[in-house]
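Field log, afternoon session.

UNIT: design team B
ACTIVITY: writing a sequence onto a fixed backbone
BACKBONE:
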């Protein structure tokens, strides 16, 4: 393989990206306004702050402008101007990301896709629908429900996250154990490359072995290969009534035993966990009650389809078995839709609840069977170095993905906390590497984790990724500085 070599104009491009305002002149501004409309080229401080950031708060956004295109053709025209003048672009969706993948910090042009939010082309035979990248996840879920179908990719930010962003990060969420990641539901997509060309990838086909499936390169690429401008999404049959069970467990090994017992006998649609400290925070700050009086170290949340009484009977029998084995100390099961929703909130409201603590977040993963040892090592190293840090654990234990959240002590400054969390990241990712895991299970790499990519990817893999980026984006204008530096 030919080693990666940066383009000849790399130094020039680097200068331009750091000094974009100097070449963002009235001629370019007028050209952009002609494409999207004068009112949709935003340069005021409030809008630049809004569109230039995501849910991370470690970087101060500093875009040159935010653009709100309303069509594929407008996106293509924007990209062509950006390519001509070597202006960096940052695609922006619902801005719910947790790795600073859509944060603009170097005077880039933000391409906000909110207006491209139409759902059309529903095909009841193929169970597919075409979505603009600005379609909100919950909007697609409701569209499917209204037609007796189901879009199963779900997570806490479904009310604000957008399909384009979900595709760009290959979002997972709470149903992965049964329904997989976003990747599994993208039947086709359209991408505007770094040269302004439009690629129509896979076109909704179920079987297509005609060469490389470029669709799957784009999914999870965090906007570094181009801008997703349309997606053909697969829908599923609507599930039957869902029951939710919350179980109190004494330790992580018991959680694994519970998972094995239930998975051996039942089809689960979700298997989540959260720590006692996470539960205490949620109950104290949300309008929720503890699921039961018994206090345990961890809690497992299970969801299953109860097509008839036999499913619930089976679940209760497994619960009794786990009690007898000492894997479970207490538990409850939903008796209504409202109760199921409240039990889910114990898990889903954690992220929102801990936001005021400016949490350091890490979504890491390993093989499911190794999670207990993995989690114990991570917690031990953090506690030994920074005993004053509060650690909140939760995650999708059924797919090996755990979320480490460290809360900033009130007396500690943000900059100092960020510096200390940088040390934590190195220790944590060294453990991840030993366990053959991933430094980013579902949130992407973005800015926050690009310095640690080598803990999950080999030098050869990273070199190939860079060559792929240049094939799609030869001038390096698409979300530069994310995942890796050219």
């Amino acid at each position: 393989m030919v080693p990666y070599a940066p383009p000849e104009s790399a130094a020039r491009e680097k200068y331009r990206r750091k000094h974009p305002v100097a070449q963002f002149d009235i001629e370019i501004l007028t050209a952009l306004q002609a494409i999207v409309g004068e009112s949709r080229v935003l340069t005021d401080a409030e809008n630049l702050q809004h569109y230039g950031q995501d849910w991370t708060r470690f970087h101060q956004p500093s875009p040159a402008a935010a653009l709100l295109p309303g069509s594929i053709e407008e996106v293509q025209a924007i990209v062509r101007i950006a390519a001509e003048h070597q202006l960096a672009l940052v695609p922006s969706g619902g801005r719910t990301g947790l790795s600073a993948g859509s944060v603009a910090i170097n005077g880039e042009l933000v391409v906000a896709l909110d207006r491209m939010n139409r759902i059309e082309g529903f095909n009841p035979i193929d169970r597919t629908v075409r979505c603009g990248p600005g379609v909100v996840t919950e909007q697609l879920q409701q569209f499917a429900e209204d037609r007796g179908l189901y879009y199963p990719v779900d997570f806490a930010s479904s009310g604000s996250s957008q399909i384009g962003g979900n595709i760009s990060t290959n979002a997972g969420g709470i149903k992965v154990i049964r329904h997989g990641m976003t990747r599994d539901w993208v039947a086709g997509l359209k991408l505007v490359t770094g040269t302004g060309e439009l690629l129509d990838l896979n076109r909704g086909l179920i079987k297509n072995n005609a060469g490389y499936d470029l669709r799957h390169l784009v999914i999870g690429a965090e906007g570094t290969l181009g801008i997703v401008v349309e997606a053909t999404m697969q829908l599923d049959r609507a599930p039957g009534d869902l029951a939710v069970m919350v179980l109190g467990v004494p330790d992580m090994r018991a959680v694994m035993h519970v998972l094995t017992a239930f998975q051996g006998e039942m089809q689960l649609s979700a298997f989540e966990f959260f720590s006692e400290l996470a539960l205490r925070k949620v109950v104290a700050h949300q309008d929720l009650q503890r699921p039961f009086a018994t206090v345990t170290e961890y809690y497992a949340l299970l969801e299953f389809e109860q097509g008839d009484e036999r499913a619930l009977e089976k679940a209760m029998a497994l619960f009794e078995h786990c009690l007898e084995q000492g894997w479970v100390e207490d538990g409850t099961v939903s008796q209504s839709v409202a109760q199921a929703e409240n039990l889910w909130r114990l898990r889903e409201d954690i992220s929102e609840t801990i936001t005021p603590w400016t949490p350091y977040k890490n979504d890491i993963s390993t093989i499911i069977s190794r999670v207990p040892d993995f989690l114990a090592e991570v917690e031990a190293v953090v506690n030994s170095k920074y005993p004053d840090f509060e650690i909140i654990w939760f995650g999708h234990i059924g797919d090996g993905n755990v979320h480490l959240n460290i809360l900033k002590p009130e007396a500690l400054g943000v900059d100092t906390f960020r510096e200390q969390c940088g040390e934590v990241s190195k220790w944590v990712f060294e453990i991840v590497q030993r366990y053959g895991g991933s430094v980013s299970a579902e949130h992407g790499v973005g800015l926050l984790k690009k310095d640690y990519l080598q803990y999950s990817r080999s030098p050869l893999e990273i070199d190939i990724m860079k060559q792929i980026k240049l094939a799609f984006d030869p001038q390096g204008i698409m979300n530069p500085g994310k995942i890796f530096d050219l």
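LOG NOTE: The domain at 358-455 is CATH 3.30.70.2740 (Alpha-Beta Plaits).
NEXT ACTIVITY: expression trials, pending approval
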